[in-house]
Design goal:
Largest sheet: 9 strands, mixed
Shape: globular
Order of helices and strands: HEHEHHEHEEHEHHEHEEEHHEEEEHE
Number of strands: 15
CATH topology of the largest domain: Alkaline Phosphatase, subunit A
CATH architecture of the largest domain: 3-Layer(aba) Sandwich
Oligomer: single chain
């Protein structure tokens, strides 16, 4: 009888072991918006935009108030997927910008890699080795065809190319002229129809990935192009927000508001699909953005794309409006509901949080302690930022945030600015003159960090001459 009982016990325990293994590999849906500002969601204070699905997601998980990205897209994406700071990777500007910078400014921009090196092991590669189906749907912007998602651990690549934005958000999503003479297209989205909208179509493809995964755990990186330029949206949605415009609103662009609505609708469809398939309780859902909102104007428009108020400035700058982003995490069984976390975090923390083997070495930290207890702290002394390039919102600069203290250093002339974010989140009062010792301390720490990661600096330009700032929006 003993062998028989042992055999039966093994049969009974096997499904439990399989269940435990499945639970130890939760599905991961990481939704990344492009150029979405910190205050562009209802749950972050938007006054024109409507984001009911994202607001609900925030009620179901943890909303971070002080989450950071790099100040432009490619560096943020590289940092997120590698767990390493963009300065350490030497990827500090968007891919196209790494090949052709301004020639007549005071400084020659620092060199920046166009391609994410294959020597970097991405989050997708780690999850792929752990048995996940890995899929990129949407924007890639981390290199040429030899460095596309398939070469970095993604089993599926739908739409990912070297370009940072589509020529148009309407099918067939191709053409030239918007970003120069080069013909751009979004691959693998054939057989659409006139009027089809890119955010909707990428969502369709994302839902197909989830369905095709079957019983295999999956990592879906849904990297939307919205609400990056071109600022285009569906006509009915535009009319809806035009009718909502009122004097005194911070957000004034009805077309952009309509783009944000489509983005929110996409999140709602993904959440509904997970629930319908019985996957809701075993799927981590994360929503964030790759940099602050773009505050310039799109071609043919006179209204600024968005406002990051009460934060200062926008995309490109190292002021809060350029680097602080929304971040919402729902992890069933881990995150409490309707929680707010005020601890400063940064996108590369997500790599270390989602890594299947825990938090390996790198420049980020595992956020699970905060996800379980949003009032907990992290063992991190400071966050650092490095943008040795020009943009319409900034000249080359670096920054450090230590506690509530924030120092910016501008490389053209060495000018510094010091802010107390606890009392002055809008960075209106420069305290560097009143608190020279604090400013000097933070400057030393910033310089030491740059040395430790091998950050590349801009150099003096002997041929300097007046020239307009590098234009956005790439």
């Amino acid at each position: 009888m003993k062998p028989t009982l042992a055999f039966l016990a093994a049969l009974l325990l096997a499904p439990l072991a399989e269940l435990h293994a499945a639970e130890s590999k939760p599905n991961i849906v990481l939704i990344l918006a492009d150029d979405l500002g910190w205050s562009d969601l209802g749950c972050y204070g938007a006054d024109l935009h409507e984001t009911p699905h994202l607001d609900l997601l925030a009620q179901q998980g943890v909303r971070f108030t002080d989450a950071y990205a790099m100040s432009v897209c490619t560096p943020s994406r590289a940092a997120l997927l590698s767990g390493k700071h963009a300065a350490r990777l030497h990827m500090t500007i968007w891919s196209e910008g790494s090949r052709n910078g301004p020639k007549k400014r005071k400084l020659i921009e620092a060199g920046s890699l166009h391609d994410l090196p294959h020597t970097e092991t991405t989050l997708a590669r780690h999850l792929q080795k752990a048995g996940y189906l890995t899929a990129l749907v949407g924007k890639w912007h981390l290199g040429d065809a030899a460095h596309y998602p398939e070469t970095h651990g993604f089993d599926v690549n739908i739409g990912g190319t070297q370009w940072g934005a589509p020529n148009t958000f309407f099918w067939p999503y191709s053409g030239s002229g918007r970003f120069g003479p080069e013909f751009r297209y979004v691959p693998h989205l054939e057989f659409g129809k006139p009027g089809e909208y890119l955010t909707d179509r990428l969502t369709d493809e994302a839902l197909r990935v989830i369905a095709r995964a079957g019983d295999q755990p999956f990592f879906l990186f849904l990297a939307h192009h919205a609400p990056h330029t071109p600022i285009e949206a569906k006509a009915d949605d535009i009319r809806h927000f035009e009718a909502k415009l009122r004097p005194g609103q911070q957000h004034r662009n009805a077309v952009y508001a309509a783009m944000v609505k489509s983005l929110d609708d996409s999140v709602g469809r993904v959440l509904d699909h997970l629930k319908e398939r019985g996957l809701e309780q075993n799927t981590i859902v994360i929503f964030t953005s790759d940099n602050g909102g773009y505050i310039g104007t799109d071609k043919g428009q006179t209204t600024p794309v968005t406002s990051n108020a009460p934060l200062r400035s926008g995309k490109g700058a190292l002021y809060e409006g350029g680097i602080r982003v929304p971040l919402i995490v729902r992890w069933p069984g881990v995150t409490p509901k309707a929680a707010e976390c005020r601890e400063p975090v940064v996108l590369m923390d997500l790599f270390h949080t989602l890594h299947p083997a825990g938090s390996p070495g790198g420049d980020g930290l595992d956020l699970q302690p905060l996800l379980r207890n949003p009032d907990a702290g992290l063992d991190r002394e400071a966050l650092f930022f490095h943008y040795p390039h020009y943009y319409e919102t900034t000249t080359p600069a670096g920054a450090i945030r230590a506690g509530n203290w924030k120092l910016l250093e501008y490389f053209e002339d060495g000018r510094i600015e010091l802010y107390d974010l606890g009392n002055d989140p809008g960075e209106k009062t420069d305290l560097s003159g009143r608190m020279p010792e604090k400013a000097a301390e933070l400057r030393r720490r910033l310089h030491a960090w740059r040395g430790s990661v091998g950050a590349v600096m801009p150099t003096s330009n002997p041929a300097q001459a007046p020239e307009t700032p590098r234009p956005g929006n790439k």
